[in-house]
Amino acid sequence: MSLVADVVVRRGSLDLRVALRVEPGETVAVVGPNGAGKSTFLRCLAGLLPIDEGEIAVDGKVLDDPTLGVCVAPERRPMGVVFQDHLLFPHLTALDNVAFGLRGRGARRREARVAAAGWLERLGLGTCAASVPSALSGGQAQRVALARALATEPRVLLLDEPLAALDASTRVAVRAELRRHLASFDGMRVLVTHDPVDAYALADRVVVLEAGRVVQEGALSEVAATPRSRFVADLVGVNLVEGVVVDGVLITESGARVVIADAGDGPALAVIRPHSVVVSRRAEEGSARNRWATTVAGIDRRGDRARVVLEGELPLVAEITVESLEQLGLRPGDEVHAAVKATDIEVDR
Q1: Which domain holds residue 98?
Q2: Does 207 share its domain with 244?
Q3: pLDDT at 349
Q4: Which of 71, 209, 288, 292 has the fewest CB atoms within 10 Å, measured from its CB?
């Protein structure tokens, strides 16, 4: 019982060839640069784009197979889709938007509305049932779209950049809610995203697409350990620090301390972007509240930028200009100091 997809599609300059298997209860993140074929692959799964070769099957039932002439219509597939821009009907209330999918699958109007109301309550949107999309916040609209997808009780949930249209503060809250709801969904989930934090927080496994081909897959930690392309190296170069927040300080399992801004106590994930890490030869005075003594473990030059791998109590990757690299005269083995402002650190739960 699983989603099995062997997809071959040719559209313009894109030659997409992807083989993927997703087990019940598993979330797979499909990541890759623009034009890699991520959204095209998702559209094929949803039945919005026919495949040229291969097969798509859910729980043993074939949904696509060109050689057999099988192509099940989108509304007849056991799938729910959440799009980046929500695609809510602007003239319908939140309740009727959620009920729409059920009505499309044959439910009576009253039955569909009762079920839709139940889903809005489950996602904390009971008071928004009568609101039209223009009256909703970005986070509320995304939750309505999620409720619409889940209301049909799909076996497969497809999420196409579900957090990309949200601002940074809203994204953190909605990501946490989405993670909680995915945990209660026992079907197969496929997430398309360009954000490594989404992949880390939501996915069990990552599949990397480049130029229509799978170039790497596995748990994000496995992919990060041995990146096979520059895109993957950049993707996993974000510093993700797990720990527990106590009085505004995130404490890692190893005992490293990270001062953060505006985060309550409890387990958390700190996101430190490489360009936010300042590297210096000595512990200088300044406004940064986080400072660590580190050792340069490696340097990777890329054009006018350089990634500096730092080892220490808190391992980090810093991104600096080549000019700064040369001014500092950095070499592997050098002892340096790393600094990060608390306000430059994102916190996810």
Answers
A1: 3-235
A2: no
A3: 63
A4: 71
Count of structural domains, the chain = 2
How far apart, in whole angstroms, are the C-alpha atoms of residue 296 and residue 328? 12
Element (H, E) at 58: strand 53-58
The model's pLDDT over 146-182, given as tens digits with 9 standing for 90+, comes to 888 888 889 999 999 888 777 766 777 778 778 888 8
Are 189 and 218 contained in the same domain? yes
Residues 253 and 293 both lie in one domain = yes
Closest CA to 94 of 129, 125, 63: 129
Percentage of the chain beyond pLDDT 90 is 46
Nearest-10 crossing angle of helices 168-183, 138-151: 20
The tens digit of pLDDT for each residue in 56-75 reads 999 999 999 999 999 999 98
- Which residue is it, tokens 């099988």? 70
pTM, entire model = 0.73
Given the DSSP bridges, would you call strands 61-65 and 53-58 parallel, antiparallel or unpaired?
A: antiparallel
Nearest alpha carbon to residue 197 among 212, 176, 227:
176
Q: Which one of 179, 211, 235 terminates a domain?
A: 235
pLDDT computed for residue 22 by the predictor: 96
Is the distance from CB of 32 to CB of 14 less than 8 angstroms? no
**163 and 286 inside one domain:** no
Per-residue pLDDT, 294:
93
User: How many CA atoms within 13 Å lie on the side-chain side of 336?
Assistant: 27
Q: Which helix (DSSP H) or strand (DSSP E) does residue 279 occupy?
A: strand 278-280
Domain shared by 341 and 271, yes or no: yes
φ, ψ (nearest 5 deg) of residue 177:
-65, -40
